[in-house]
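HUMAN: Please help interpret these tokens:
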Amino acid sequence: MSPLPPDRAAWTGFVLSASVLLLLSFVSPGECQTTSPPPPPVRCSSFKDCDSCVPHAKCLWCFTTNNCTDYPVTWWLPPASLCPLSQARWGVCWLNFEALIIALAVLVGTFLISIVICCCCCCCCKSRHSGLDRDEERFARRREEIRQRAEERKVERQSRHDEIRRKYGLMGDSDHPYSKFENE
């Protein structure tokens, strides 16, 4: 008998068999594959126009100097000594670096603001629902108290009526309801 529940044991078996299958798929048959050496890296300075320069992620085109240079990966933004931001192109020729930075900043800002708004709405809705639950609970308790008091008053009223009936002899045998007419 397995110590795991049946569905968990099945799940564990499935995971185990999937991992064995995955490991076996990485093992190749006894062939030895040789790889060709990687091509020599392309120098950015070899590109002579913007359209051939900017598709390479490591290259930056500057319209001021009309040359393609290596993108300075040590900085997020290329320094002004390399090329002014309004004249630098990276990724596409029609979008300068300033516009790219502004567009990305707007997108990131919008994304962060929407996350903050969603979190605030979720927190407010959760507290509002818990407030409604508390109100509903309070109203249910109050209704129950009112119902119990009404029931108590009904029982008291019934007992007073029964006393009055006994006092005036209107309450006879419960087995024979017409007994008062027979006494006359």
Helices lie at 6-26, 50-53, 97-167, 179-182. The two ends are 85 Å apart (CA to CA). The beta strands are 59-62, 67-70, 88-89.
